[in-house]
Amino acid sequence: MKLHTGALDALDPRISRPAYDRSSLTPGIVHVGLGNFHRAHQAVYLDDLFAKGLDHDWAICGAGVRAPDGKMRDALAAQDYLSTVIELDPSGPRPRIIGAMVDFCPVDPENGPLIDRMADPATRIVSLTVTEGGYYVDATTGTFDPSHPDILADGAAPERPKTVFGAIVAALKARRTAGLPPFTVMSCDNIPGNGEVTRDAVAGTARLSDPDFALWIETNVAFPNSMVDRITPATGEGERALARDFDLDDSVPVTCEPFRQWVLEDNFPQGRPRLEEVGVTFTGHVHDYERMKIRILNGGHAIIAYAGALLGCEFAHDAMAHPLVSAYLRKVETEEILPHVAPVPEFAPPAYLELIEERFANPAVKDTIRRLCLDGSNRQPKFIVPSIADGLRKGTPIEGLALESALWCRYCAGSFEDGTEIAPNDPNWESLTTLAAQARETPAVWLTQRAVYGEVQGDARFEESFSKWLHLLWSDGARRSIETYLNG
To answer: What's a Pfam family this protein contains (predicted)?
Structure first.
């Protein structure tokens, strides 16, 4: 059965459906970046809230600034903006239909429809999931890069922006001209201090064409920090087939683990939905939650990813079932990551690690190792290198993290140990494979990537450890290298 509003009452009774009248919803949030994570996370929280009969004026209008966003719009519009979310519990899949989205802006190269929708008085929050690499951060400085060609183009033609940040600037300016208060800009991406990073990107884009307006943005627009968490695999034929197991035809279903978490700063001058009613934590200490999640979970994904890939694991749960990979994860986390993470009210770091290990091992999720290996050039500097930097500053162990970095380098050489080619898996794959080939003989060449290694580049202790592990990986292989680390 094709998913659409008229089909809801006839769906398989095992499928949960919106417990509210969708005709009562009106949009209050414009969300840019309608990927799987948003539809399995923010949209689900709002669906739960609407089911309580609360805040029906906070529905979602989807939006995007890239060509693939247009394809997503077409797919969702064909099913009345309904999404199938299937929670992958070990006891069996739990499908539900999410109805929190009611519209999707036309995707236009100059972003006119998006600017108009954000400038609408009904829009009080603009939220974002544009990936970790979508904020134009210069890894060498850790700050916004105004020299990026995309940003320079928006600075030269602010009335025809190509980026989401240029579109936000244009919409904020239109609202100020119309005498409307600014909307809140809420990032939902896995970036430390994501609110501050987003503020810098928006104000930095504005500064190229109107420095006074950039200052107005910094003074008047709210950018709350947040921490978001839910493992959400990519959608492929297997996920679509799972929806069909429930006699449901959805071209873009989402699968996810049962666990979810959302932590937010309560900084919403134009109001917000009462998300605390459905489990969202509002706190002034988002950074503590964020550090725990990014270091332990996202860093943990990187630890099992390259080790698992080189040892032949297909899924995250396969890696966790491999005694070397699971032992490697536990040792690196316990000795080299947890000492630099503060507790939060819900979790001490060791308890959080146990939760993460349980989540990684969930066989129903089928999160691929290839997905976890994706985009290392953007993920390593955010999820791994900060823990290395802490260890170097404090004189604590960094051997396991240096091995992780060497495993990433070995993976980027472009072939598995049996000679099978690794398909490109990073936006910078060509340059990475070239550098990894050079690093086979001269490991220090890999560490010249200032955009990745930042402040740890040039550290003698890290370079010595990395070089030792990379030589061992090439001479003896991943299994022997990980065994060597585990045996001290």
So the answer is: Mannitol_dh
Give Cβ neighbours of residue 447 (< 8 Å, ≥ 6 apart). Answer: 453, 457, 458, 462, 463, 466
Whether the Cβ atoms of residue 384 and residue 376 lie closer than 8 Å to each other: no
Distances (CA, A) of 413 to 325, 380, 452, 480: 21, 16, 17, 18
Q: For residues 140 and 146, what is the distance between their CA atoms, to the nearest angstrom?
A: 13
CA dihedral sign of residues 105, 111, 114, 120: negative
Q: What is the CA radius of gyration of the chain?
A: 23
Q: Are residues 298 and 274 in the same domain?
A: no
Task: Using the predicted structure, report yes or no on whether residue 139 has a pLDDT greater than 80.
Answer: no
Residue 25 CB neighbour total at 10 angstroms: 22
Q: Which two structure tokens, joined as six digits, stand for 352?
A: 């959080």
Give the tens place of pLDDT for each residue, 348-407. 999 999 999 999 999 999 999 999 999 999 999 999 999 999 999 999 999 999 999 999
In this predicted structure, the answer to whether residue 172 has a pLDDT above a threshold of 90 is: yes
Picking from 187, 42, 178, 180, the residue whose alpha carbon sits closest to that of residue 128 is 187
Q: Are residues 340 and 279 in the same domain?
A: no
Position 295 scores a pLDDT of 97
Residues 198 and 306 in one domain: no
Q: CB–CB of 294/261 below 8 Å?
A: no
**Which domain range does residue 325 map to?**
287-487
CATH number at residue 482: 1.10.1040.10
Specify the pLDDT at position 457. Answer: 92
Q: In terms of domains, do 69 and 161 share one?
A: yes
Return the H-helix or E-strand segment holding 285: none
Residue 189 reports pLDDT greater than 80: yes
Instruction: Name the residue with tokens 């080790």.
Output: 307
**Residue range 193-209, pLDDT digits in tens:** 999 999 999 999 999 99
Instruction: Say if residue 182 is in the same domain as residue 307.
Output: no
Distance of alpha carbon 73 from the chain centroid: 20
User: What CATH number did the domain enclosing 223 receive?
Assistant: 3.40.50.720
As a whole number of angstroms, the distance between CA 482 and CA 332 comes to 11
